[in-house]
Amino acid sequence: MFSFFGLGKDRSKFGKWLDRRGISQKWVEDNAKVSKGTVSRLCSESDAKPNGSTANKILKALKKVGHSVDYDDFWM
Length: 76
What we know:
This protein has helices spanning 13-21, 25-32, 36-44, 52-64, 71-75. It is mostly helical.
């Protein structure tokens, strides 16, 4: 798959959701306090699912800035 910007990266449902809203992976790393590798995997691998603690950290960070999201929105 080729992206508009020519990066050619496949994106998961979570990655596409972040892209549409202009939220960077770095923002997720910093605000959810999760590793770069974890965020990268969740954004690129469509079958990747975070453990409960990681999912809660990510969802809490997104909700804190006004996004109404649930685990099922990305990882079911």
